[in-house]
Amino acid sequence: MSRILKQDSAFPIKNAKNIIGTRNRIIHSYVNTSDEIIWTIIVRELPNLKIEIGKLLT
Fold first, then answer.
1. HEC letters along the chain
2. Which pLDDT value is given to residue 6?
3. What angle (nearest 5°) sits at the alpha carbon of residue 5, between those of residues 4 and 7?
4. Cα-to-chain-centroid distance, residue 53
5. pLDDT tens-digit profile of 26-48?
6. What span, in angstroms and rounded, lies between the C-alpha atoms of 15 and 21?
7. Where are the domains of the chain?
């Protein structure tokens, strides 16, 4: 299990499971991953992730 998913992790990222799942789908089944899904994730989710990571770094 990734350190990011553990309850007592030093990296409490809200959607860690979804992030890891998406990464796995892209890596292992990139042919079946639509550009629209990736673009939607970039537009909707990445800004929130950037804020979360920024908070962790301060």
1. CCHHHCCCCCCCCCCHHHHHHHHHHHHHCHHHCCHHHHHHHHHHCHHHHHHHHHHHHC
2. 63
3. 105
4. 11
5. 888 877 888 898 999 999 999 99
6. 10
7. 3-57
Q: What is the pLDDT of residue 10?
A: 62
pLDDT at 58: 83
Q: Which residue has the higher pLDDT, 50 or 31?
A: 50
Answer for the pair 13, 19: CB distance below 8 angstroms, yes or no: yes
Integer CA distances (angstroms), 20 to 29, 34, 47, 51, in order: 14, 17, 17, 18
Residue type, 55: K
Tokens of 1: 């299990």
